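user:
I keep going back and forth on a fold encoding question. Separate attempts, laid side by side, tell us more than any discussion would. Would you put together a sequence-and-structure record for a protein of your own picking? Write it directly below this note and I will take it from there.

assistant:
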Amino acid sequence: FTLASALLGDGYYSLDAAETGHGSLWWEPEYDHAGRGKGYLGFPLGPMQRVGVPSGPEKIANGSFAGGTSAWNSLPYLATGSWQVDGAEYHSSPGAARIDVTAVQAGGSFKLYQSVPVVMGRGYTLSFWARASAPQELLLHLYASSCPKIRCLTDQSVALGTGWERHEIPFVASGTASLAGLNIFVQQAGTVWLDDVSLREGDSSIYRRDFDHGIVILNYTTAAQTVDLGGTFWHLNAPGWPLYDGAATTSETLAPSDAR
């Protein structure tokens, strides 16, 4: 897992298994393809990509704003502003939430929110599209008194630009709440648009990186995950290692916190 993590992010990996001294280095088959030579993966073809797709039920009501302002509420605190559904500016039809903030005092914000259920220890993926009239930071969290430090999802800061961008936050709920407040805060004057807000059960923290001669995949979730490789690949071949049997495969099942 740690070796694959290093490969995903241009890191350097080493493991010393000794309790005293530094003479007990481990040698993993991935280092040199079981004797076939160093560098067998070649150069990376690009950065790592998140390939997990949450498949659980949708927890957000009216995330596309097709139902107007229903299910959503707003609350200004030391701020002046309003929100509406904008039918002329959106990521996907028929409209987006447009939040217009005209003034904000120190420590103030304009909040858009609704309540959703979450269960402790389960993985979720929060995603949305957003843009702003001028670059700014958007703050959000999941709030409930039943969660540690009243956060089922800790404070998340998202950088908004002037063009539409998709933001995705996979997380594991720290507590159980039937009504956890998904709170989205605009903290400076200007206009922010939100669209296609989604919260689905299922952690999407599954990553892949393609190299000249192979791929690296990693499961950062709390459940086993099967990854479709999109073609035929071969396991490494290292005698005595059941995972490295040289077999052809088009998908791979990874245990929690495991990698290939």
Q: What stands out?
A: The first strand starts at residue 49 and ends at 50.
